Amino acid sequence: MNGQAASNGDSASPDFIRIENLSKHFDDFVAVDSVSLSIARGELFSILGGSGCGKTTLLRMLAGFEVPTTGRIFIDGIDVTDLPPYERPVNMMFQSYAIFPHMTVESNIGYGLRKDRLPKSEIGSRVDQMLELVKLNDFRHRKPDQLSGGQRQRVALARALIKRPKVLLLDEPLAALDRKLREHTQFELMAIQDRLKITFIVVTHDQEEAMTLSTRIAVMEQGRFEQVGTPKQVYEYPCNRFVADFIGTINTFESRVVGCTDGVIEVESAEAGSHLHALTDKPIASGDSVSIALRPEKIFISQERPDAAEDTCLHGIVEDLGYFGNLSLYRIRLSTGKIVQVSAQNRRRSAERFLEWNDEVWISWQRQSAVVLTE
Amino acid sequence: MKRRSAFVLSALAFGYAFLYVPLASVIFYSFNDSRLATVWGGFSTRWYGELWGNDQVLDAAFLSLRIAVTSATLATVLGTLAGLALVRVTRFRGRTLFSAMITSPLVMPEVITGLSLLLLFVSLQQLVGWPAQRGFSTITIAHTTFSMAYVAVVVRSRLAAMDQSLEEAAMDLGGRPLRVLVDITLPLIYPAMLAGWLLAFTLSLDDLVIASFVSGPGSNTLPMYIFSKVKLGVTPDINALASLVILFVSAGVLLAWLVTRRGPGQPGRT
Ligand SMILES: Nc1ncnc2c1ncn2[C@@H]1O[C@H](COP(=O)(O)OP(=O)(O)OP(=O)(O)O)[C@@H](O)[C@H]1O
Ligand SMILES: [Mg+2]
Predict the structure, then answer these.
(1) Is the residue at A3 inside a domain?
(2) CATH architecture designation of domain B42-260
(3) Single pTM value for the model
(4) Which of B 171-230 lie inside 8 A of A, CB atoms?
(5) Are A215 and A90 found together in one domain?
(6) pLDDT for A142-183, tens place per residue?
(7) Model confidence at A9: pLDDT above 70
(8) B180 to chain A, minimum CA–CA distance in Å?
(9) Dihedral of CA B169/B170/B176/B180: which sign?
């Protein structure tokens, strides 16, 4: 694991939330498999993973709905593992929103404060604040079944935020929204989080959402964390093939190491049909088999052979291309038959294509762009 | 619109006639002026008036109503608790068995239920001296035991259809389990509880067999009174009484249907 500390510049202790060896077994099925993690105060931490990998189960253990099979949870220095949900300084926004259907928007949002027996006047003013924050002032007397999906989602958010919990857990908060509203809400969420200084833990299976929202991301698979790091670290330095594949698109070349000096390795790849170079700080010896991985946008495409001596150059033909407005995607077939995906920005405005099907092209990349994957 | 075949239509008419002609004739003859129950002698409401003067009828009706209200209320409380335990309490050993067992009173022949309860009351009396007399209390207990099964079944299906994360959300926001029950669960299942109450009420009002087993001398419920009178021949005042019972029970069933028909999330007020 690549557990670098939070890099959001706070002086906060990285141990605001500490999870130690947390596991959850359902009979003999292991849903969460000894996960350990530290989260700093004020972080917006995302848990990213495919369906059924244990994200919701992990969140439910943090909220107190699921009793861990092993392990402990500390929040702000206090062991909360054995506390019931109503005594934890944690609130949750449910995947289904779970808005009380028999209460108005207003009384839904105020529910948490009423259970804390705050004076009526304070409840009133804090509900007003929340309605303001999520822009639902005009809907305060509506019943939930008179709201749109996006409005319901904002009620759920306001209801979970009003108690100013130390930690807010969000289970796929944006899954039910359309793309435009989702992008808009992402930024709203970030703004709210920034304003209230509450630590957010967001579960999602949408990698773009995780990349835009988070200070750090944990990539989860079969109940384990494959990698924990900032969006940049996880994208640019994936620690293994699963993470590299899961986040974005990546080209991989199966290779065998032929030499290694000063952190520069030279490999021989039958798939690329030539020797490749890459930088790594992993302990690697000649003869090891590794994968050299490259993101499509790290590869340059040109009609003439580029002349930078350090760079890797391969020759191929354009097998397929797609135009996406701001960028174009190319599938290049190398002479070995290997397909490489390349993306390029459409800098020039032109109705004609820069490349056509079956054009001969050169693809090249800087050696520091290549990632070495050992598993 | 598709044309319905004559066969389907006549089958439908026949079926409904089979169900409702007897009831209709009871109501029809209750307005019969003649003393002979089956000979038409002109329209009259005198038998309804005569019922008012009949103390035996009034006593029986009053006893039946008291039993029905008490046993329906007890059955609703117990049945709701049973439904909650079966659906919401985390898995316990034998939950499936209990789940199946709760429905057994629904299929048990009434004669058996009545007999077993009678045996229970008799041996209780010998052991602890209670119930000294069989009557209101024994019939109420008997009716509660079988109608609570109906309530439990109605409440259980409502609970099973309810999103459990609602209760979790309330707990997450600081509601202790008992408060969550009052704030969230009960308001959302109360239509089912009300329907269960009405069902239990009409079942109790209807029951002849079980009540006959567990009643004592001098405590006649309305169905028992009617049955004993009819053994001596049908009289027009019985027709009037039966018509009133029909009216009462159909009103109850209609109300139960109206209450359950309301979707989840609209239990009236907040
Ligand atoms: N109460 C339970 N009993 C048995 N197995 C369970 C239970 N809850 C969850 N699981 C199993 O644990 C695994 C993880 O479930 P979880 O709900 O955490 O997935 P998830 O990562 O949230 O998936 P999704 O993205 O689809 O919501 C799943 O395989 C699921 O079948
Ligand atoms: Mg989930």
Answers:
(1) no
(2) Orthogonal Bundle (1.10)
(3) 0.81
(4) 171-176, 179, 183-184, 187-188
(5) yes
(6) 999 999 888 998 899 999 999 999 999 999 888 777 788 788
(7) no
(8) 10
(9) negative
Which structural domain range is residue A202 located in? 17-244
Ligand approaching nearest to the C-alpha of A94: 2
Q: Are residues A204 and A112 in the same domain?
A: yes
Q: How far apart are CA A320 and CA B172, in angstroms?
A: 52
Distance from CA of A14 to the nearest CA of B (A): 25
A254-273 average pLDDT score: 88
Cα distance between residue A139 and residue A114, in whole Å: 20
User: At B103, phi and psi to the nearest 5?
Assistant: -85, -5
Chain B hits for A90, CB-CB cut-off 8 Å, are 172
Within a domain: A320: yes
What A75-79 contacts at long range (C-beta under 8 Å, 24+ apart), as own/partner pairs, is A75/A16, A75/A17, A75/A166, A75/A167, A76/A16, A76/A17, A76/A166, A77/A15
Helix H or strand E segment including B213: helix B209-214
Give the one of B163, B173, B264 whose C-beta lies nearest to A159's C-beta.
B173
* Residues forming a β-bridge with A44: A200
For chain A, the average pLDDT equals 89
User: Does pLDDT of A6 surpass 60?
Assistant: no
Contact present, B67 and B147 (Cβ < 8 Å): no
Position of tokens 């994936």?
A238
Going from the first residue of chain B to its last (270 residues), give the mean pLDDT of each consecutive group of 10, the final group possibly shorter: 77 91 89 82 87 88 94 96 86 79 85 93 90 90 92 92 93 94 94 91 91 90 90 84 88 82 48
Task: Count up the domains in chain A and report the number.
Answer: 2
